[in-house]
Task: inverse folding
């Protein structure tokens, strides 16, 4: 039975399900070869070192097997020959809102980016397809000496900082998909925050896929110099496509001595997207890196944000929410590498599986023998909504040596029928009761997201729950 | 027609019959009390009326203002005006009282109409004050880590906010000290009106000193075995239940 509320919400859902015709000025065609990479380099006018970097990465990508010995066999269904590796509007990043093309603005509008966020657009780096169609550094941020540009601009205009850290946190051959990204990357952000500068506004980026069979391979590098602080937020909504789409980003963070970086992601991919992302940060002495991550949608997401705590007293944190809808697989977790004394890591992960959805938690915590006084806390909680929903947990905690403090808690729960009855007795429909219970389950984590994201998140959860009941 | 009528109701859990031909009529404006030993089926009656999915009604009917509610979902019954204050209220982790009650109030509004937040909070706060519930409570998760007394007060708060036509209070007095009992009772009394019918389930006469019932019924083995005026409660208190069931 379909209630009016449901059809209203379904109509709402279609908001993200549309495409405008965009005149793609450059198109690398389908499939991947050395020629594709040369094409990308030529179009982007990459310096020689980038061309060499891409080609070496491409060779690694070819040589590396699919990681199906530990990951899902579904990866074998990615047909690399059918993917389009580069599309562009052939535009340089825009400076002002007025200069942004009307159809791009319309896209933002249809996505329902709230008015108050549009105000924020003055300080926003928004990626439209593979090029940043809009990029405007807020005056105040610029005055503080903060560099906030597209990665293509970053590598050309700030090679001295860019080259120093690019590919250093996540080596090209870290995994097959980081190699692929390194070969064909385009788009993404480059941010440098000078020593002692605390960026008061979160820097934001909107990513969107807008072409069929379009692979998106953005590359983001954020460097917070000594004592600097910055928060970066990215959010995605993708239109629905008929054929599989691959999204494979690489994000590298570098927090120098005493710096703080917070990286916030809310993703809602359509259910044909393979979202295979490598995110890692390098925290120097007394630095802090925190990943706040929410994964909704996609066919398969594999993402394990990590922090390498390289300096004494460095701190790493991953807070993640995953929602695996019917037929979806959220394979997420965290990697914490302790590489100095008195380093602290914290992992809090909550997952929700509904219908035939599956959520997998993989957590790697590594504390080697020679270190002293390291701490890790890991909590992972899974909530199963339907009888066929599934969850698995693979914690790999290797702690050697003495005087460390390690805590690990895991739970799997189901929504209690008595709770639902209690809420229904107050007038809530079964679906509304489910939504409320699920929102309650993740509430403590949702509160760590900025206001506009937590509202959006709640709405996304409501949408997912509507479909899973009755 | 302005009654909550339970007609010859039979209900089972699995194949175990618990309600065995229970008949009771609660007109609007009246408060009826049901007393009975533990296990006599009082909570079962409350849950069957509210539509708990574990119970099967094998025969009989429940009519709310003349309309049978047995085919309705629990939430439909609730929106029609039936409220149950639970003997054991459920905890809902991560959902604040304010948000929970708000969602419940919102569910009663016509589609497309949004609850006005300032009005809602004004209403909520005044009703919390009347029940001596501190403001800080609104941001606590529903029933999580509440004392017995806090849970019961929170049930009455919900009832006050939702303004039911018929309210069933299942052992709302159990676990309350005398001060809490007075607060809860005055909260319930404040909701008495010619527009509301109440069924107060209790094990002890004590509650009926504060909530004076119009009628008292004794339940045993799934049916009403004796009905009388409020002095029946006093007799039950002094002489126990055995003389009722023995007769
Ligand atoms: N879920 C259940 N499964 C089996 N028997 C139950 C269940 N709930 C209640 N009962 C039985 O039904 C009878 C009535 O219980 P209940 O309605 O809770 O009584 P009261 O509220 O009067 O103490 C008792 O014998 C009890 O054991
Ligand atoms: Mg009972």
Result:
């Amino acid at each position: 039975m379909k209630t009016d509320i449901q059809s209203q919400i379904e109509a709402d859902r279609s908001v993200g399900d549309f495409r405008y015709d965009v005149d793609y000025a450059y198109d690398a065609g389908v499939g991947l070869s050395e020629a594709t990479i040369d094409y990308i380099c030529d179009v982007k006018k990459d310096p020689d070192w980038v061309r060499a970097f891409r080609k070496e990465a491409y060779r690694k990508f070819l040589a590396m097997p699919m990681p199906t010995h530990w990951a899902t066999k579904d990866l074998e269904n990615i047909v690399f020959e059918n993917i389009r590796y580069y599309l562009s509007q052939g535009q340089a990043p825009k400076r002002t809102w007025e200069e942004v093309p009307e159809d791009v603005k319309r896209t933002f509008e249809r996505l329902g980016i709230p008015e108050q966020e549009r105000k924020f657009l003055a300080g926003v780096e928004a990626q439209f397809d593979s090029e940043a169609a809009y990029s405007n550094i807020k005056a105040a941020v610029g005055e503080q000496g903060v560099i906030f540009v597209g990665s293509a601009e970053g590598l050309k205009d700030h090679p001295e900082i860019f080259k120093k850290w690019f590919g250093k946190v996540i080596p090209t051959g870290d995994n097959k998909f980081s190699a692929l990204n390194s070969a064909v990357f385009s788009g993404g952000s480059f941010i440098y925050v000078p020593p002692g500068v605390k960026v008061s506004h979160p820097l934001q980026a909107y990513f969107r896929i807008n072409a069929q069979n379009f692979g998106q391979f953005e590359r983001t590098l954020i460097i917070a110099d000594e004592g600097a602080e910055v928060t970066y937020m990215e959010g995605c909504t993708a239109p629905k496509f008929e054929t599989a789409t691959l999204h494979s980003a690489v994000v590298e963070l570098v927090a120098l001595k005493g710096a703080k970086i917070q990286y916030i992601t809310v993703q809602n991919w359509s259910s044909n997207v393979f979202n295979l992302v490598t995110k890692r940060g390098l925290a120097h002495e007394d630095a802090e890196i925190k990943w706040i991550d929410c994964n909704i949608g996609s066919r398969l997401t594999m993402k394990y944000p990590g922090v390498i705590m390289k300096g004494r007293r460095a701190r790493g944190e991953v807070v993640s929410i995953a929602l695996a809808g019917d037929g979806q697989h959220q394979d997420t977790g965290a990697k914490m590498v302790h590489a100095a004394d008195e380093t602290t890591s914290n992992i809090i992960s909550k997952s929700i599986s509904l219908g035939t959805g599956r959520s997998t938690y993989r957590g790697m915590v590594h504390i080697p023998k020679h270190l002293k006084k390291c701490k890790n806390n890991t909590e992972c909680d899974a909530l199963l909504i339907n009888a066929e929903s599934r969850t698995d947990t693979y914690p790999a905690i290797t702690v050697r040596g003495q005087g460390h403090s390690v805590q690990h808690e895991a739970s799997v729960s189901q929504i209690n029928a008595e709770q639902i009855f209690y809420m229904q007795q107050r007038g809530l429909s079964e679906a509304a009761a489910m939504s409320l219970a699920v929102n309650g389950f993740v509430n403590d984590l949702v509160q760590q997201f900025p206001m506009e994201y937590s509202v959006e998140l709640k709405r996304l959860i409501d949408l997912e729950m509507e479909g899973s009941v009755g | 027609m302005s009654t909550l009528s339970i007609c010859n109701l039979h209900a089972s859990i699995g194949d175990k019959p618990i309600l065995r031909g229970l008949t009771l009529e609660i007109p609007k404006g009246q408060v009826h009390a049901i007393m009975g030993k533990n296990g006599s089926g009082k909570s079962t009656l409350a849950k069957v009326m509210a539509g708990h999915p574990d119970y099967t009604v094998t025969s009989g009917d429940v009519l709310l203002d003349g309309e049978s509610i047995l085919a309705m979902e629990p939430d439909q019954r609730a929106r029609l005006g039936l409220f149950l204050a639970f003997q054991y209220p459920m905890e809902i982790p991560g959902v604040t009282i304010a948000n929970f009650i708000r969602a419940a109030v919102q569910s009663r509004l016509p589609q497309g109409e949004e609850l006005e937040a300032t009005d809602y909070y004004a209403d909520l706060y005044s009703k919390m004050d009347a029940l001596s519930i501190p403001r800080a409570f609104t941001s606590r998760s529903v029933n999580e880590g509440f004392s017995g007394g806090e849970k019961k007060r929170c049930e009455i708060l919900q009832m006050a906010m939702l303004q039911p036509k018929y309210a069933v209070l299942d052992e709302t007095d159990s676990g309350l000290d005398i001060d809490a009992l007075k607060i809860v009772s005055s909260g319930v009394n404040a909701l008495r009106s010619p527009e509301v019918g109440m069924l107060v389930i209790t094990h002890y006469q004590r509650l009926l000193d504060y909530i004076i019932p119009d009628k008292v019924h004794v339940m045993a083995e799934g049916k009403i075995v004796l009905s009388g005026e409020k002095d029946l409660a006093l007799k039950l208190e002094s002489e126990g239940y055995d003389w009722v069931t023995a007769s």
In short: The interface with chain A takes residues 50-53, 73-75, 77-79, 83-84, 86, 89-95, 99-101, 103-104, 107-108, 111, 141, 158, 162 of chain B (CB under 8 Å). Chain B has eight helices and twelve strands. Chain B has a mean pLDDT of 93. Chain B has one domain: 3-92+164-246.
